[in-house]
Design brief:
The complex is a heterodimer of chains A (113) and B (785).
Chain A lengths: L2 E5 L9 H8 L13 E10 L5 E9 L7 H5 L6 H5 L5 E5 H7 L7 E4 L1
Antiparallel strand pairs in A: 1-4, 1-5, 2-3
Chain B lengths: L22 E3 L7 E4 L2 E7 L11 E6 L5 E6 L12 H4 L1 H5 L9 E2 L11 E2 L2 H19 L4 E5 L6 H11 L4 E3 L8 H11 L4 E2 L19 E5 L3 H4 L8 H7 L3 E5 L5 H4 L3 E3 L6 H14 L5 H7 E2 L1 H8 L4 H8 L3 H13 L3 E5 L9 H14 L9 E2 L18 H4 L20 H10 L12 E5 L11 H8 L4 E6 L4 H6 L2 E4 L8 E3 L6 E5 L11 H12 L9 H9 L6 H7 L2 E3 L26 E2 L3 H5 L19 H6 L2 E5 L15 H6 L4 E4 L1 H6 L7 E5 L4 E8 L7 E4 L11 H12 L21 E7 L20
Parallel strand pairs in B: 8-9, 8-17, 11-12, 11-15, 12-13, 14-23, 17-18, 18-19, 24-28, 25-27
Antiparallel strand pairs in B: 1-22, 2-3, 3-4, 4-5, 6-7, 6-19, 10-16, 20-21, 21-22, 24-29, 25-28, 26-27, 26-29
The chains are: A alpha+beta (113), B alpha/beta (785).
Bound molecules: iron/sulfur cluster (SF4) (3 copies).
One iron/sulfur cluster binds next to helix 1 of chain B.
Chain lengths: 113, 785
């Protein structure tokens, strides 16, 4: 079954926890220093007319993301980034299930990994 | 190191031992230490250092060699529910850092500022310290030894116990005006008898699912960016949890933050005008009669005097003072008044203005006259398991010694439940040799424990340095070689990280009972508590009867009817919680209904302040230095600067030597609007001097529209561990990067509060090779000025 991560980016605070959680995961010891399976991109803060402002953060999954396969095989319930995400905006699962949740609210992105 | 593999304390799942009925417990499937494949896992609280004040629930993974290899969040701990921030995830890099000093050292006081250390044993260090401290005590009195502490992590109760047991009343928190947390506590305790924290369901083990809890309709983020700051017992992302559940935000902040972009109302006030804005909001509520009249009638005292104090602060006048729109002030007042459950999420910014006490009083009045007091989704009086955290062993200090505490004669408010000496009076005393009454008062020695005043907490770095140099003998207890240690210490004692020690975590905010559990040992480092116990046994043995730290913890935990080992098995433990305690006689010592004040009511006009000669109602003072109070200075220094902006990875002056954390914040930043930057000829990424009449510091420019062109915002706590150290090398960047060089010792009328977050400055490009020195605050060569 193809798997993925659903991101509710409306609430991604840009805290970088997902990056660190991926980098320090024991099954990721062979990752090149300074890189890991996810990188948070920051759009920055600016006004968009009237009293409205925007500040979007977006975790982007890189080619290093192995969906924490070894970690999950060892018995952990969740990928490290998903478990530690401070805003609880990452959900790991089967694509088919996750894709059903996409319509529930705006500002979501589904990564097929 | 393999001794930590002992898993003999294992409790079978579900087995209940030593669990008093008065607490609620969280069930874990596994004991506090268990084996997971090739790793041993130790569960406990991450109560710092390194890291912040919160003490998130963690799982420490050690390998077969006893080495810490990974930290994970504890998913069963209701506090953080498995989440962690970058700092605890990266603990390995802090614990095993090459810059850590893990053995005791001494240096001849003549060699202060030089790399001239000799490694010594713990016994040699203790002997030397005991000999000096006891000699000073004999000749000059115990008050001649000051005990300095840093940010409020697991240190305050231990250091005050040591100081008081030794006989010194001088516990020093090296901030001018104790301008962190203390002003908020002072104003709250004196006017309502309690401290008040936002209700994010943190007192319930089921958290958001507890049926007694209600989602706050409105959260006012006032001088606090909680998701980054994680301060005062609030796990910042709880605010996000509540927003997902429907909470609406008002952001009171000079800067547009990520949370601010999602707010209904943004009030970008001029730094230091918090009191005026609060009075303006109160004015609208009172004028439109939208406050909670019933609550005010029944439970508040002095409403008419408050009304009079707010009278001048019409929306128009307030708008003019605070540089915000009048209609937004009105809208904010209405939104707060109409909310069913409002949290005043006040931050350290409210403490860091000079007249912080009357300012915090104004902020309190907002949640008080709207009846958001001890109600679901409002402000709650946090349940307290044990009072030890506010200091234990006060009875060890004689009344005669208590009267010698520096500052209490000048600032009577320091007597009211506050145990610190006035830092400002202490600095003056070091300079003049006299106390506030003009009597001779020799200060001879200092014990500085996990504090870095020259970089982080103290203003006016040069003045601080010169004053502290007057101590004849200084001991520093720390994890790293900091600029404070380089400059001042004669003896260095290595403290350890939370992974290397046992401890108890019953701290600030809503108290929960947890333990900190040792998983590793690094070098000869010892915990702060063990160090205090061992030195205590030499300088005041009658007050340190315990053989081990666990015995000492169990002594404190007697009040909880548990031993250290029992709490370790059962943690986390929670107290039962009730709302509206004032209706049930649960807030007053005499069991009467109401609040623990002289009138039994929340005192909008304070009888206690009246008694000690302090103004009784909230008030506003123009921040000085500021554009309105000092127009001439403003011409020369045309930007209003606020310091101390928090970032994700670096806590205060910590973490600069931790690679992954430093990578997230490589340089000290000044944020400013592109218009401002271009006006003064600087651009994104430029190195600039941020300067005022007191000094200057280097910063890197980050352009952002988040700030009004009249403001700039910058980090604090900066030094460069990688730069050349000691006096000849500029103390690892201390004089180049410490922004506190622009600040002054200048406390408020009560002795509390100081202007850390509101000064004036100008910026200009920094030339390559341009440095500050100790002698020359502005870096100009002689005669050039
Ligand atoms: S799923 Fe695992 S490998 Fe992928 S980004 Fe998250 S932590 Fe990294
Ligand atoms: S951990 Fe979660 S909230 Fe933080 S940056 Fe990553 S996705 Fe966003
Ligand atoms: S907020 Fe971060 S630094 Fe503070 S205890 Fe939690 S994980 Fe550690």
């Amino acid at each position: 079954m193809p798997q993925g991560i659903l991101v509710d980016y409306e609430w991604c605070s840009g805290c970088h926890t997902c990056e660190m959680a991926c980098a320090v995961e024991l099954t990721h010891k062979d990752f090149p220093e300074g890189h890991c399976g996810v990188k948070v991109h920051e759009e920055g803060v600016y006004p968009i007319g009237g009293d409205k402002w925007t500040d979007i953060n977006m975790p982007v999954f890189t080619d290093l993301c192995d969906k924490c396969a070894d970690r999950l095989a060892a018995g952990e319930a969740l990928p490290s980034c998903v478990k530690h995400c401070q805003a609880h905006v990452l959900e790991f699962g089967e694509l088919e299930e996750l894709s059903k949740k996409l319509a529930a609210k705006p500002k979501q992105v589904l990564y097929a990994l | 190191m393999t001794e930590f593999h002992d898993v003999s304390h294992e409790r079978k799942a579900g087995e209940k031992i030593g669990r008093p009925d008065k607490y609620e417990y969280v069930e874990h499937d596994k004991p506090w230490r268990y084996q997971e494949g090739e790793y041993t896992v130790t569960r406990g609280s991450a109560w710092s250092g390194p890291g912040c004040h919160l003490g998130c629930g963690v799982l420490l993974y050690t390998d077969k060699d006893g080495k810490l290899v990974k930290v994970e969040g504890d998913p069963d701990n209701p506090f953080n529910k498995g989440r962690l921030c970058v700092r605890c995830l990266d603990l390995m890099e802090s614990a095993y850092n090459k810059d850590r000093i893990v053995h005791p050292m001494k240096r001849d006081p003549k060699d202060r500022g030089k790399d001239a250390w000799t490694q010594i044993t713990w016994d040699e260090a203790y002997d030397l310290i005991a000999e000096k401290f006891l000699a000073y005590k004999k000749e000059f009195g115990a008050q001649s030894v000051c005990f300095f502490k840093g940010t409020g992590r697991d240190i305050a109760p231990w250091i005050s116990h040591l100081a008081w047991s030794f006989g010194s009343p001088n516990v020093v928190f090296a901030l001018s005006g104790c301008a962190c947390f203390v002003p908020r506590i002072a104003s709250s305790m004196c006017t309502s008898g309690s401290f008040w924290v936002g209700d994010y369901s943190q007192q319930f083990t089921k958290r958001y699912d507890d049926p007694r809890w209600k989602v706050p309709e409105c959260i006012v983020l006032w001088g606090n960016n909680p998701i980054v700051a994680n301060s005062d017992g609030l796990y910042g992302h709880w605010v996000v949890d509540c927003m997902k559940r429907g909470s609406k935000i008002i952001s009171v902040d000079p800067k547009m933050t990520w949370l601010g972009t999602k707010a209904e109302i943004f009030l970008p006030l001029r730094p230091g005008t918090d009191a005026a804005l609060a009075l303006g909001i109160l004015h609208v509520m009172i004028d439109e009669e939208i406050y909670d009249k019933d609550f005010v009638d029944r439970w508040c005292y002095g409403f008419d005097q408050l009304k009079e104090a707010c009278e001048p602060y019409t929306p128009e006048k307030t708008a003019e003072i605070c540089w915000v729109d009048a209609d937004k002030i009105i809208a904010a007042a209405r939104m707060i008044a109409n909310a069913d459950g409002m949290i005043m999420q006040w931050g350290v910014a409210t403490d860091m203005s000079k007249e912080a006490v009357p300012s915090c009083q104004a902020l309190s009045a907002i949640f008080e006259i709207t009846g958001n007091v001890d109600v679901p989704g409002g402000m709650i009086a946090p349940p307290s398991i044990l009072p030890y955290y506010a200091g234990w062993g006060g009875e060890n200090l004689s009344d005669e010694q208590k009267e010698k505490r520096l500052g209490i004669h000048k600032y009577p408010l320091y007597r009211y439940g506050f145990k610190n000496a006035s830092t400002d009076v202490t600095i003056e005393c070091l300079e003049t040799g006299k106390d506030e009454n003009g009597n001779d008062y020799p200060l001879k020695a200092a014990w500085m424990q996990t504090t870095n005043p020259l970089i982080n907490s103290s203003p006016d770095t040069r003045r601080t340095y010169n004053a502290l140099m007057k101590f004849e003998f200084i001991v520093s207890v720390d994890l790293y070689m900091t600029p404070t240690v380089q400059a001042l210490a004669d003896v260095f004692l290595p403290a350890c990280t939370y992974a290397e020690r046992n401890g108890i975590r019953i701290g600030d905010g809503v108290q929960r009972g947890e333990t900190i559990n040792k998983a590793i040992q690094v070098g000869e480092a010892k915990s702060d508590m063990v160090i205090n116990l061992e030195i205590g046994k030499r300088i005041c043995p009658e007050y340190y009867p315990w053989d081990t730290e666990e015995e000492m913890f169990s002594h404190i935990l007697e009040g909880m009817d548990m031993t250290f080992e029992q709490l370790r098995d059962a943690a986390p433990t929670y107290l039962d919680f009730e709302y509206k305690k004032y209706e049930k006689g649960l807030l007053r010592h005499d069991g009467q209904i109401g609040f623990e004040t002289a009138t039994g009511r929340i005192e909008l006009w304070s009888t206690y302040f009246n008694q000690i000669g302090v103004e009784c109602v909230p008030s506003f003072d123009e921040p000085s230095p500021g554009p309105v109070a000092d127009p001439d200075l403003y011409k020369e220094y045309p930007i209003v600067l606020t310091t101390g902006a928090r970032n994700w990875s670096l806590f205060h002056s910590e973490h600069r030597q931790v690679p992954r954390l430093r990578a997230l914040r490589p340089d000290p930043i000044i944020q400013m609007n592109p218009k401002t930057a271009h006006k003064y000829g600087v651009d994104q990424g430029d190195w600039v001097w941020v300067e005022n009449q007191r000094g200057r510091a280097k910063r890197r420019v980050e352009l952002t529209e988040a700030l009004d062109p009249r403001y700039a915002s910058t980090d604090h706590g900066w030094w460069l561990p990688e730069a050349e150290g000691y006096k000849d090398g500029g103390f690892s960047g201390m004089y180049d990067y410490n922004i506190n060089q622009l600040l002054a010792y200048d406390p408020g009328r009560t002795g509390f509060g100081s202007n850390y977050k509101t000064v004036l400055c100008r910026v200009y490009k920094c030339e390559e090779g341009d440095h500050n020195t100790l002698e020359n605050a502005l870096g100009c060569s002689e005669g050039e000025e």
